């Protein structure tokens, strides 16, 4: 392991301390740094909270800010935050208009978010939930409820966050989130392992010349492990699995997210996007909005994922709306 | 006693607190066979916090409010799965006996049916999955039968506790489907489920308490 650390036990809390010192637009509640909220709350707005394990920056807390999320609870590396932490965030961000939870489909997160929602209900705070499950590789068609949430949750944050900023009701913001969730698909590929600081060695081993298609963002097994192909061949295989899942017609518009998993250079991500653009063009699909960078990582894992959001007029407007968070800035065109 | 009043409920939580303090090491060892050994810690911590919270709140709060305080306190103090599940049970029981001024056999049946439903729903467990639901379900059914037959509270709870103990024995033949134990699959056969053991301990102590 080659990492910048003090005591590995303090990895998460020292990371958080750095973030609070760098970005005064976020703060924390309940005297717990792991309960992040925006320092710039909007009166009367539907609150949006997320949460999950640490080790995925900019996910989750990097999206707390204007036009995106109002709060995030984070746990240890790859560990769920507690229901108490989620509840504290919920209480802090409720403006009387209710709170929407947007998080990934992992059993620990579900149980704790459900519990937090029940505690909030006792306080009279209405909570709705949207559980991201965009990872095509993690279960087959017909069993989408078993799929994990990965980088595509960014599109749900972006559209629901913009809807809440427009002043829509909790029901409406929830409807938008669900629509974005159902129209987003992600495929990932890993080239090397992540290292959890407190464990100190690779989570899994993979050969120098191998890749694993469909691996999860905590190193969950993927669909196939084989010799690493060319960038174009890798994208061709990944995009085929995405295309079959949605009814794309010539002239349809999409938003594209090319996400680096932490250990892959931006240059390579653009090489991957080049091929994605060619394939979309070949089908007459218009890449209306494109993001290339790190949005949901897995420590130092080398690899990438491609997320495609099938747009309609409403999602097109919302995905393009301005946002300003410590890790994500977007300006209206 | 014929019914558990608010003041008794505070004493009951204290009895449960003592029970899980005594059973801490036993539960750690039991859970350690196929889990992560934190069950004894979770239970002793969460019941200690709940007992303290209901005592601080006092009997004037009434049955439903005390149960709600116990559940909410547990949810906050014990972030592990089993703590969240038992917390859910008490929160749902609180709603089920919302207007009750004391818990007789009928209210106790409603209490445990809600407790079982809450845990099954939150943990997404069904009967046969080798969890606490496997003892709560037959115990709740027994309480409903006893209530229908007009049994007194001590008789009904004794029957429910006995049913739960028999049901715990049956979990030895089951294969774990949930939590860390699920990874052990066939190796869990022959072992009684740790969560189900918690359910039996809870019900037996309740039965003893009502008979005293």
From TrEMBL, chain A:
An example Gene Ontology molecular-function term: glycerone kinase activity
Keyword annotations from UniProtKB, A to Z: ATP-binding, Kinase, Nucleotide-binding, Transferase
EC number: 2.7.1.121
Enzyme class: transferase
GO cellular component entries: cytosol
InterPro entries noted in UniProt: DhaK_dom, Dihydroxyacetone_Kinase
Position of the signal peptide: none
Listed GO biological process terms: glycerol catabolic process
Tagged with keyword Ribonucleoprotein: no
Key word Iron-sulfur present: no
One Pfam family from the record: Dak1
All copies of domain DhaK, residue ranges: 7-328
Protein's UniProt name: Dihydroxyacetone kinase subunit DhaK
Organism for this UniProt entry: Neorhizobium lilium
From TrEMBL, chain B:
Keyword Transmembrane applies: no
GO molecular function: glycerone kinase activity
UniProt keyword Kinase present: yes
Residue ranges of domain DhaL in the record: 7-208
UniProt xrefs under SUPFAM superfamilies: DhaL-like (SSF101473)
Lineage: superkingdom: Bacteria
GO biological-process terms attached to the record: glycerol catabolic process
Family matches, as Pfam families: Dak2
Keyword field: Kinase, Transferase
Matching InterPro entries: DhaL_dom, DhaL_dom_sf, Dihydroxyacetone_Kinase
Family matches, as PANTHER family: TRIOKINASE/FMN CYCLASE (PTHR28629), TRIOKINASE_FMN CYCLASE (PTHR28629:SF4)
Name listed for the protein in its UniProt record: Dihydroxyacetone kinase subunit L
Organism: Neorhizobium lilium
């Amino acid at each position: 392991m080659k990492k910048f650390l003090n005591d590995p036990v303090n990895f998460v809390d020292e990371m958080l301390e750095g973030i609070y010192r760098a970005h005064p637009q976020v703060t924390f509640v309940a005297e717990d740094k792991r309960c992040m909220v925006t320092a710039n709350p909007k009166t009367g707005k539907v609150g949006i909270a997320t949460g999950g394990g640490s080790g995925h920056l900019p996910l989750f807390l990097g999206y707390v800010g204007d036009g995106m999320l109002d709060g995030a609870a984070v746990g240890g590396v790859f560990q769920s935050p507690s229901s108490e932490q989620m509840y504290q965030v919920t209480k802090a961000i409720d403006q009387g208009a209710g709170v929407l939870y947007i998080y990934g489909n992992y059993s620990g997160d579900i149980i704790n978010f459900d519990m937090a929602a029940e505690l909030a209900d006792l306080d009279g705070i209405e909570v709705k939930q949207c559980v991201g499950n965009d990872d095509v590789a993690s279960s087959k068609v017909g069993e989408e409820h078993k799929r994990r949430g990965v980088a595509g949750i960014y599109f749900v944050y972006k559209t629901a966050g913009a809807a809440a900023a427009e002043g829509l009701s909790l029901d409406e913001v929830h409807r938008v989130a669900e629509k974005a969730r159902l129209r987003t698909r992600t495929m990932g590929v890993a080239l090397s392992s992540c290292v959890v600081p407190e464990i100190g060695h690779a989570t899994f081993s993979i050969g120098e010349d191998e890749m694993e298609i469909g691996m999860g963002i905590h190193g969950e097994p993927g669909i196939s492990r084989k010799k690493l192909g060319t960038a174009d061949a890798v994208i061709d295989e990944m995009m085929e699995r995405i295309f079959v899942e949605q009814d794309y017609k010539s002239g349809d518009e999409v938003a594209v997210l090319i996400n680096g998993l932490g250990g892959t250079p931006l240059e390579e991500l653009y090489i991957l996007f080049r091929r994605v653009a060619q394939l979309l063009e070949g089908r007459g699909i218009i890449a209306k909005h494109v993001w290339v960078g790190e949005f949901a990582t897995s420590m130092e894992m080398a690899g990438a994922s491609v997320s495609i959001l099938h747009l309609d007029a409403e999602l097109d407007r919302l995905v393009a709306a301005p946002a300003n968070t410590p890790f994500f800035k977007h300006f209206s065109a | 006693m014929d019914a558990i009043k608010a003041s008794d409920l505070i004493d009951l939580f204290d009895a449960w607190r003592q029970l899980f303090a005594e059973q801490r090491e036993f539960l750690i060892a039991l859970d350690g066979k196929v889990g992560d050994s934190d069950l004894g810690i979770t239970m002793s911590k969460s019941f200690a916090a709940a007992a303290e919270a209901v005592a601080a709140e006092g009997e004037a709060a009434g049955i439903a409010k005390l149960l709600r305080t116990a559940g909410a306190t547990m949810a906050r103090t014990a972030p592990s799965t089993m703590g969240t599940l038992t917390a859910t049970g008490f929160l749902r029981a609180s709603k089920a006996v919302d207007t009750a001024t004391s818990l007789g056999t009928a209210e106790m049946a409603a209490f445990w049916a809600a407790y079982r439903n809450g845990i099954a729903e939150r943990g997404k467990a069904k009967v046969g999955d080798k969890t606490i639901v496997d003892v709560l379900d037959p115990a709740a059914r027994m309480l409903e039968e006893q209530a229908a037959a007009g049994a007194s509270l001590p008789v009904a709870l004794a029957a429910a506790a006995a049913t739960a103990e028999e049901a715990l024995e049956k979990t030895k033949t089951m294969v774990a489907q949930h939590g860390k134990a699920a990874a052990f699959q066939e190796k869990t056969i022959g072992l009684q489920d740790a969560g189900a053991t918690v359910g039996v301990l809870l019900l037996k102590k309740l039965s003893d308490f009502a008979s005293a």
